[in-house]
Amino acid sequence: MPEDNNSVVIENLVKRFGDFVAVDRISLAVRKGEVFGFLGPNGAGKSTTIRMLCGLLKPTSGRARVAGYDVARDPELVRQNIGYMSQKFSLYNDLTVVENIRLFAGLYSVPANVLKERIEWALEMSSLKGREHLITATLPGGWKQRLALGCAVLHQPPVIFLDEPTSGVDPISRRQFWDLIHHMAEEDVTVFVTTHYMEEAEYCNRLAMISRGAVAALGAPSELKQKSMKGELLLVECEPLGQAVEILQSAPDVIDAGVFGRALHLVVRDATAAIPQVKKYLSDHGVTVGLIEKIHPSLEDVFVSLTSAADTGKEWKA
Question: Virtual CA dihedral for 55, 157, 161, 15, nearest 10 degrees?
Answer without folding.
Answer: -20
